[in-house]
Amino acid sequence: AGALDPVVLVAFAILLASVGWLLLGPRKRPAVVPVPRDAAATAPPARPLAKRGRLVILWGSQTGTAEGFAKTLEHEALERGFEAQHVDLEDYDVESLAQEPGLVVFLMATHGEGEPTDNAVAFHAWLGSGDRPGDEMGAVRFAAFALGNRQYEKFCSEGIWVDERMAQLGAARVHALGQGDDDQDLEADFEHWRIGLWSELGCADPDAEAAGATGPAFVATFRGELPDSSSVDGKEDGWEADWL
Fold this sequence. Notes:
Layout: H1 6-24, H2 39-42, E1 53-60, H3 65-79, E2 82-88, E3 103-111, E4 115-116, H4 121-127, E5 141-148, H5 157-168, E6 172-173, E7 178-181, H6 186-200, H7 206-211, E8 218-222, E9 239-243
Parallel strand pairs: 1-2, 1-3, 3-5, 5-6, 5-7
Antiparallel strand pairs: 3-4, 8-9
């Protein structure tokens, strides 16, 4: 057999050396995220969102706006730990109002020239009856938001009336009456009012409340190649743990 070409032998030797280096050469150690000492002892335990009891949202709506606001308020109340439910006034058992154990929120639109909406007519007649005892609602805590339009003479009259009538019957107002003007920015008026409501109830920020103090104890930042030693305290390279 003929001798192999020297160039081929050299190339083959270089290939073998490269494969050997890849298979047997030094490897980088995997980066390790430092775990603080006594981390389990120092990190506060997760805690459930506080349970705040019942919150019923009663709405009188002609075009659906107050109903939509009720759904928004219900969603935010659930986020804050309330057992919340929105109810069409037409479907609500008015005889149970005086015994409501939690908070009652009225979202009342005004229809026509100061009249209740169709679904609130019966409620208006019941609440306004002269047969109601003066302290009948003495155990009720409530808040009210009135929807209207300043183009009409009796702006927000139904919501204003419900707010005044509930107080007249002894109910405790937990937040000032809100008034929304559909001729301007009704949504912004409602947002401003409900922010004040949550603040008054001590639950303005559901995210902060849900998180509590359960954030990380430190932040680990990668700064490049790990050093040769096993220490991870160096700041020039490897991982650096910044305690919060």
